[in-house]
Amino acid sequence: MTKIFKILAQFFSNLWNFRSISKFKKINKKLHTEVKNQDKERAQFLHEFRFYLRKYLKRDVSGKYIPIKGKNKAEIYSTIMAVHGARLKQLNLTFTENLEIKL
What is the DSSP letter of 98? Predict the structure, then answer.
């Protein structure tokens, strides 16, 4: 008797919450696609960013940290924030004064 009552209670609970469950499913699908798009944009931006650094510093920058030789950290930081600061904020990336990008 209690099993039947639990099954009926679950059925009516799901029936009662059907609209909210379907709304959450739609929202989750949209969020999933947006997260994928943002990851693609971040990867593309990081590629463009490394290309810019190679051009600006005139040396290979393939790792997480930027090697500094010949230029001041503050000068590099201010130049990068002036050029790419808005895009970094848009993609929720932070560029620290130690010249590293954090997600």
Answer: T
Low-confidence ranges of the chain (pLDDT < 70): 1, 58-70
Beta-carbon-side half-sphere exposure of residue 12 (alpha carbons within 13 Å):
5
Task: Let me know: does 77 contact 99? Beta carbons within 8 Å.
Answer: yes
* Paired sense of beta strands 101-102 and 94-95, if any: antiparallel
- pTM of the predicted model as reported, rounded to 2 decimal places: 0.60
In angstroms, the CA 99 to CA 63 distance is 11
Greatest Cα-to-Cα distance within the chain, rounded to the nearest angstrom: 81
- In the chain, the number of structural domains is 1
Domain coverage including residue 79: 2-102
The C-alpha atoms of residue 51 and residue 61 are separated, in whole angstroms, by 8
pLDDT given for residue 44 in this prediction: 92
